[in-house]
Design goal:
The protein is mostly beta strands. It has four helices and 23 strands. It has helices at residues 31-40, 136-145, 157-160, 246-255; strands at 2-4, 10-17, 20-24, 46-50, 61-63, 65-67, 81-85, 96-99, 102-108, 115-122, 125-129, 151-155, 166-168, 171-173, 185-187, 201-204, 216-218, 225-232, 235-239, 261-267, 278-280, 298-300, 307-312. Strands 17, 18, 19, 20, 21, 22 and 23 form a seven-stranded mixed β-sheet that branches. Strands 1, 2, 3, 4, 5 and 8 form a six-stranded mixed β-sheet that branches. The chain is elongated and about 75 Å long.
Length: 313
């Protein structure tokens, strides 16, 4: 069990040993052991392992033998332990564990399981995710975790509807390369900012929706800046600068989960595979959740006209 924490999935670790609860020494405990603890308690993945009596000293006896979990065991009792004891263990270094509490993820209210409204399970309750807390990096990790390829778009509630019940407003700070969301660091967000009107959805490349017109991506090294590419008739095309404005830019930044627009400019660089397919003529009011809601553009051959780069905040 985990005790003295702020919720059921955080606290000082105690193990039931012959009808007595014993504390565990931080010298005998590592991340792989924490994986098993969090899994057995149905608490998701470990976020942090803390020593030096972070959750109080307690008055239980100390478990001083080294625990040697591989990390994939379903229960702590299946982990091997060493025969030798660590004589330096005391209540001053009882180990504490913080688990994510998030146990499952899904995309719902779509035609397939690789697109939809993002929902997370927390302590056996399903809830939606606020768009204020979500970006393409988190979406990329989610798609990878669900075996759905890469993230193509972050969309608002107009695509997959509003959820009901809980809204989980924690922010996942991902760099985009993680294999699952539990590997990203988590920070909190004011729940007052969130409502079901702001429930976020994701379209992954493994979804049938990924071929729909109006999906966007930026080809830069960072998630929220680069040359704009739009999917039209299942082909990624560059956008010409000549008919573009801040209004359309704001829609793209919103669609990507990248905040508001900082600026846009012309770019003369063009990779060969896009050299003959460009689009122009998007017209947005600025309130659209994605570029596919704006007036349809023309497709034309790319010329020497500058192509578009966008930087979002």
């Amino acid at each position: 069990r985990l005790i003295n924490g702020s919720h059921l999935c955080a606290g000082r670790l105690e193990i039931l040993q012959i009808k007595k609860w014993v504390s565990v020494c931080d010298a005998a405990f590592d991340q792989q052991d924490a994986e098993v603890v969090c899994r057995e308690l149905d608490c998701g993945a470990p976020v942090q392992v803390l020593g030096e009596d972070a959750f109080g000293k307690g008055d239980a006896q100390m478990w001083t033998r080294e625990i040697q979990c591989r990390g994939d065991e379903s229960h702590f009792v299946f982990c091997p332990t060493s025969n030798s004891s660590n004589t330096h263990c005391s209540h001053d270094n009882a180990v504490g564990v913080i688990c994510s509490g998030y146990t499952d993820l899904r995309l719902v209210n779509s035609s397939d399981s690789c697109s939809g409204r993002v929902e997370r399970q927390y302590f056996n309750k399903w809830g939606t995710v606020c768009d204020a807390c979500w970006d393409m990096r988190a979406a990329s990790v989610l798609c990878r975790q669900l075996n759905c390829g890469i993230a193509v778009s972050v969309v608002g509630s107009d695509w997959f509807g509003e959820g009901s019940g809980e809204i989980w407003a924690d922010v996942f700070d991902c760099d985009g390369n993680e294999t699952k969301l539990s590997e990203c660091s988590v920070s909190s967000w004011s729940r007052a900012e969130c409502s079901h009107r702001r429930d976020v959805g994701v379209v992954c490349s493994g979804s049938s929706l990924a071929v729909h017109d109006g999906l966007v991506r930026l080809s830069g090294e960072r998630q929220c800046e680069g040359e704009l590419e739009v999917s039209i008739h299942q082909v990624w095309r560059r956008v010409l600068l000549d008919s573009w404005s801040l209004t359309e830019s704001s829609v793209v930044c919103r669609q990507l989960g990248c905040g508001s627009v900082l600026n846009f400019s012309g770019s003369s660089s063009s990779s060969p595979e896009h050299s003959h397919e460009c689009v122009t003529g998007f017209q947005c009011s600025g309130s659209e959740a994605h570029l596919g809601n704006c007036s349809s553009p023309q497709t034309l051959n790319c010329s020497s006209t500058q192509q578009l780069s966008i930087t979002c905040l």
